[in-house]
């Protein structure tokens, strides 16, 4: 039984033009003909086509495929080894490009311009989740506060970040100590810590009115990725995120804006 060029094109998933090209170059020339004189592909032709498509999928050029098919016993293994080596080298190159792209994305979405080694040295267990950073960028990209914060973050040196993280670690230790001691979240100890955190944001990133601080605290309590930026997993306690949120909102009541209600709409 023979198969027309249209039939082979349909079930092989390649174009008629490709089959004509293979025929023209001698790579795959159908050997049978219909009573009307049309060329037909035999089962042997289809088996050869399957080999051609296999090698094409591996990236072999047509002339190398022709050489392999002409003398498969002497050439196939060497050709496959050479192709494997080139593919491995290409994978390594593409992985490097992916890493560069991810680093560039992270710089754009977090504002932190440090090498991976510097990031590990400065941030330790604190890690930026790019999914969270991307969502934040989409959500707040039109906010003046968000843009100011990202711009300020991009200007910080490694030494600045080291100081920021030292301050943050000291603050976290005192927050967890207050939580562990059972200090009420709306009491003076916890709200003082909330106010200190608000001032930390204002000092290093962007002016942070109490309403903005409240939205940050809401995000921390609602999203584990945001909480992980505030408190690394190894230091977290069940209930600490809502405790921080309550303290922030209590601090806003305790320290209302000097000029009336804060109408800031985004970070």
UniProtKB/TrEMBL annotation:
Residues 1-71 form the HTH merR-type domain. This is HTH-type transcriptional activator TipA. It comes from the Bacteria. Residues 77-104 form a coiled coil. CDD domains: HTH_TipAL-Mta (cd01106). PROSITE patterns: HTH_MERR_1, HTH_MERR_2. Gene3D superfamilies: 1.10.1660.10, Antibiotic binding domain of TipA-like multidrug resistance regulators. Keywords: Activator, Coiled coil, DNA-binding, Transcription, Transcription regulation. SUPFAM superfamilies: Antibiotic binding domain of TipA-like multidrug resistance regulators, Putative DNA-binding domain. PANTHER family: HTH-TYPE TRANSCRIPTIONAL ACTIVATOR MTA, REDOX-CYCLING DRUG-SENSING TRANSCRIPTIONAL ACTIVATOR SOXR.
């Amino acid at each position: 039984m023979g198969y027309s060029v249209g039939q082979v094109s349909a079930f092989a998933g390649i174009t008629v033009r490709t089959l004509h090209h293979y025929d023209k170059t001698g790579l795959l020339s159908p050997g049978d003909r219909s009573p009307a004189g049309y060329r037909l592909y035999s089962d042997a032709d289809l088996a050869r086509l399957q080999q051609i498509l296999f090698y094409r999928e591996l990236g072999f050029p047509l002339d190398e495929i022709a050489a392999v098919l002409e003398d498969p016993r002497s050439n196939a293994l060497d050709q496959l080894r050479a192709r494997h080596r080139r593919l491995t080298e290409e994978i390594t190159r593409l992985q490097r490009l992916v890493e560069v792209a991810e680093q560039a994305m992270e710089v754009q979405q977090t504002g932190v311009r440090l090498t991976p080694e510097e990031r590990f040295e400065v941030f330790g267990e604190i890690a930026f989740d790019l999914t969270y950073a991307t969502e934040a960028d989409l959500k707040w990209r039109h906010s003046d506060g968000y843009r100011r914060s990202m711009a300020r973050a991009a200007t910080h040196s490694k030494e600045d970040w080291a100081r920021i993280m030292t301050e943050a670690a000291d603050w976290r230790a005192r927050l967890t100590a207050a939580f562990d001691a059972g200090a009420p979240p709306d009491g003076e100890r916890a709200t003082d810590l909330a106010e200190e955190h608000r001032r930390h944001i204002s000092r290093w990133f962007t002016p942070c009115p109490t309403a903005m601080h409240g939205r940050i605290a809401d995000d921390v309590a609602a999203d584990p990725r945001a909480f992980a930026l505030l408190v690394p997993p190894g230091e977290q306690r069940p209930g600490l995120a809502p405790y921080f949120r309550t303290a922030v909102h209590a601090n806003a009541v305790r320290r209302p804006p000097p000029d009336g209600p804060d109408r800031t709409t985004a970070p």
